[in-house]
Amino acid sequence: MGLEIDKYQDYKEKLLFGRYINNDSIVKLNMKYDFLVIGHSSNNLPIYSIKMGFGPIKILLWSQMHGNESTSTKALFDCLSFLNNYQKNIFSSVTLMLIPILNPDGALKYTRENINNIDLNRDALSLSQIESSILRNHYNQFKPDFCFNLHDQRSIYSVKNNKPSILSFLSPSANFEKSETKSRKESMKIIAFVKGKMSSIIPDNISRYNDDYNQNCVGDTFQSLKTPTILFESGHIGQDYNREKTREYMCYSLIYSINSIAFNDFVKIDYKDYYLIPENSTFFCDIFLKNVKTFSDKNQTIDICIMFKEVLDINKKEIRFEPYIDKHGHFSNMSGHLNVDFNQIKDCFDMSNNFIIDNLMDIINKLRIIQ
Ligand SMILES: [Zn+2]
User: Fold this and answer.
1) Considering 233, 251, 281, which residue would you say is the last residue of a domain?
2) Do 357 and 323 form a contact (C-beta atoms < 8 A)?
3) Ligand 1 mean position to 310 CA, how many Å?
4) pTM of the model
5) Residue-wise pLDDT tens digits, 62-119
6) What three-state secondary structure class fits 280?
7) Ligand 1 centre from 237 Cα, in Å?
8) For residue 250, which phi and psi values (nearest 5 degrees)?
9) Does 276 lie in the same domain as 225?
10) CA of 370 to the centre of ligand 1 (A)
11) Ligand 1 center–CA 346 separation, angstroms
């Protein structure tokens, strides 16, 4: 195993934890890195950047353009900490420009959109929001050779129908034809390189994101401007709702990506290997219940898919996960991050009862204690 794995607990950025990461969380790291204010959000919060290195290859990385997608931000700081502590020489090959939280208003409110309810990743063409213009101006000035666009994906994503997708990647399309342009192929090679490195750690939990072209998405726009761009998505596994395990895997992926660029390792990869990575499917839910008896049909049982709504508890400054029934019926392909069989439960449930989720959760919690 490499240093990045052996030493993870030593270099992990421990000041950052959990899902609720905003400007207040990251400014504590100002003592380690020089934060530069590159502009202000729609609600006048500072947008920070960090520049590391002096190498000729320039990489622009941004995270939390969706305010509630914080896992990759934690991973980004872990990655920076690793490079700074164990691989300082890389900074003579690459210059990194990081924007850890592009959407600080959304991060504070824990929303995907910015304060004006605009999804910044659908604003690349119109640049109607100040955050979008700041990213675009930064891109124009820095003239990156590569772009990393960091996100979180929902817990519904799976690899085929039985493994959760912990990480997914995309080489965004540069046009409607999804042509294999030079920059797109370079992104594909880097992703295939990372997938190869990660295969010894999580061989079955990596997928690739849908590549339909959307010129309103930032990655598609930068790819069409001929800058190889990669979308990184932090996914979900098991009961790790703080996504600390995913954070670790995402950190390794970032380290491998940057290394593959710095040392030109990705060029030897066949870009077609990218297509061997399975496409994302949506066969997962947070809790999957099997064999639930209902009043409406006493002859057969049903399956229930429960999802968690993420709610910001502003006093505790943490995220609460509120269960709700996403769908019920018969789903032979579905799995849950928690699977519970109600076979032994004699109770019959009334699916029209507003309090059914509370009843179900009581039983699930009791069964979990017994297990
Ligand atoms: Zn996102």
Assistant:
1) 281
2) yes
3) 15
4) 0.96
5) 999 999 999 999 999 999 999 999 999 999 999 999 999 999 999 999 999 999 999 9
6) strand
7) 18
8) -65, -35
9) yes
10) 37
11) 42
